[in-house]
Amino acid sequence: MPVYGIGTWGMGGRMRADPARDDDDIAALRAALELGVRHIDTAEMYGDGHAEELVCEAIQGFDRSRLFIASKALGHHLGRHALIAAAEGSLRRLRTDYLDLYMIHHPSDATPIAETMEAMDELARRGLIRHVGVSNFAPARLAAAQAVSPRKIVANQAHYSVRVREAERTELLRYCQENDVMLVAWQPVEQGSAGDLLNSVAASYDVTPVQAALNWLVSQPNVCAIAGTRRVEHLRENLGALGWRMNSADIELLRSGYHDQADVSEVYPLR
Ligand SMILES: NC(=O)c1ccc[n+]([C@@H]2O[C@H](COP(=O)([O-])OP(=O)(O)OC[C@H]3O[C@@H](n4cnc5c(N)ncnc54)[C@H](OP(=O)(O)O)[C@@H]3O)[C@@H](O)[C@H]2O)c1
Prior knowledge:
- It is a single chain.
- This protein has helices spanning 22-34, 50-59, 80-94, 113-125, 139-148, 166-169, 172-178, 196-205, 209-218, 232-239, 248-257; strands at 4-7, 39-41, 68-73, 101-104, 132-135, 153-159, 182-186, 223-227.
- It is an alpha/beta fold.
- It has one domain: TIM Barrel.
- An eight-stranded parallel beta barrel has the order 1-2-3-4-5-6-7-8, surrounded by five helices.
- Helix 5 (139-148) links the parallel strand 5 (132-135) and strand 6 (153-159).
- The longest helix has 15 residues, at 80-94.
- The relative contact order is 0.14.
């Protein structure tokens, strides 16, 4: 999985399709692809499917086999028939034959997890998805899903940044590192880009605080990051977080320096 991905939340609308900024969104995605970003994170929820249509427009002319496209099924689409229909809907909007990663967007107790994971396996056997993942799963739920899944769960998306440390407090990070699961950090930038300590660590590497905050994530084993941006100067800055590695003393310095920040996501806590 490419360690840095571009997010699409807010593109094409939020919970409803809104075409007002389509041209900007497509341009932002194409700029990312032109700068070498290969991992695109989307979901049927974003813009009620319209984000996936924008991704489809943006990837035209790029070699699909070099892209890593991840999408997610809504929490009320986790029964076998609903999940398969949801995946087919995403593929139709993206006009692609397969997803590189397909995730459960949010946990739900309405459908037995074994049914969902068996449907995921069916999608993979049909070649419609390459890898299975989840999102916002606490470690116990992730372990329970893996226990009944015919396939390896390769990724769990969670709110994780220098400031939001729920993945550490719940030991999700450790679980992912010990079980070869990628922890895909969402909202990695906005919350993690200020503070004297971050500024001084950033200065010692001659990078910006945002670059230090992103590198702090991706320098840790099994962590990658997806950030949203419509501005190419922000994208260039974010890409400057890659290709170098913060040393472990500085990783731990930032970990302990910000340990008293949010230990539960105020956006979407792990469940
Ligand atoms: N699985 C889930 O439940 C879940 C939840 C939330 C998000 N996600 C995914 O994760 C992606 C990222 O999360 P997010 O978009 O909420 O948070 P984010 O990437 O941390 O923040 C996005 C905001 O940060 C700004 N930004 C980006 N780079 C910047 C930089 N270098 N300097 C200053 N500002 C910068 C962007 O503004 P500009 O546009 O002006 O650059 C945008 O307002 C989403 O797009 C979505 O794909 C998943």
